[in-house]
Amino acid sequence: MDRRRDRRIPLARRLRREATFQERLIWNAIRQFDIAGFHPRRQAPVGPYIVDFTCHGLKLVIEIDGDHHGYGAQARNDQRRDADLRSRGYEIVRLSNQHIAESIDGAVETILAACHTRAGAIMPPTPDPSPPQAGGGESATSADAHANPRAKHKTTHTTRGS
Prior knowledge:
Blueprint: H1 8-17, H2 21-30, E1 41-46, E2 49-55, E3 60-65, H3 72-87, E4 91-96, H4 97-102, H5 104-122, H6 140-147
Parallel strand pairs: 3-4
Antiparallel strand pairs: 1-2, 2-3
Helix pairs in contact: 2-5
């Protein structure tokens, strides 16, 4: 979809300008994360939705929920939305305004843990490019010591002057 014609963009911009206090707290914390593949976006389009925060590289969505999200029609809408986002490969982290107010550090730790989990799932650790060397990859000095067990390492001792 051409971004210039995407009707969600003006709404996303308005939502960024009108961010809640809790959204601003979380944004100020997560935009400083130094995690490979983590480039956060706020009030960003994902599929037909505008999510509070996302990292497309890690396929992670972070939603900050007000009091109305846990009840009735809103709860059902959130379940449908989460199912659709998961079908697109995204993991969703939902944090309540109350959780953020009571423990911003705990909320940030929850997000950080999800980022690290997703980073490991999306980008597995790079294998060691060098295969082990013949003889166990030992250095020349340790190989010499094994070849000549009587060879001793020279040590120097220093004493403090008076």
